[in-house]
Amino acid sequence: MSIKDRDIWQAPLQRHMTPRQFVTITKELGLNKAAAGRYIGVSARTARRMIKGTSDIPTSVALLLRLMVKHKEKPLVPAWSREQN
């Protein structure tokens, strides 16, 4: 692991994600609000709250989404089903 890669994990600003950054990154990954929610394991309502800034974006989500963009990975989003909600 290079020093630059290690810095991504250690830098506090990289561990935090603003609602605007969440929107930008999910769009870059080709996800709408509902698909973003399904991918990170929350409801569409919670994803909307993250976008509005009324719910915090967990550090694990911020790190996952940033790494996916960095490594040009596309998410495999589970299909919606009534049983999941």
Summarize the structure in short.
The chain is an all-alpha fold and 85 residues long. The chain has a single domain, classed as 434 Repressor (Amino-terminal Domain) (Orthogonal Bundle), CATH 1.10.260.
Protein traits:
globular; 6 helices; mainly alpha
Explain this structure to me?
By secondary structure, the protein is mainly alpha-helical. It has six helices and no strands. The mean pLDDT is 85. Helix 3 (19-28) packs parallel to helix 6 (59-70) and helix 4 (33-40) crosses helix 5 (44-52). It has a single domain, classed as 434 Repressor (Amino-terminal Domain) (Orthogonal Bundle). The longest helix has 12 residues, at 59-70.
CATH topology: 434 Repressor (Amino-terminal Domain)
* Assigned CATH class: Mainly Alpha
Write down the domain tally. 1
Ranges with pLDDT <50 over ≥5 residues? none
Per DSSP E runs of 2 or more residues, the count of β-strands stands at 0
Order of helical and strand elements: HHHHHH
N- to C-terminal separation? 39 Å
| Main structural class | mainly alpha
Strands, helices and their partners?
Layout: H1 3-10, H2 12-15, H3 19-28, H4 33-40, H5 44-52, H6 59-70
Helix pairs in contact: 3-6, 4-5
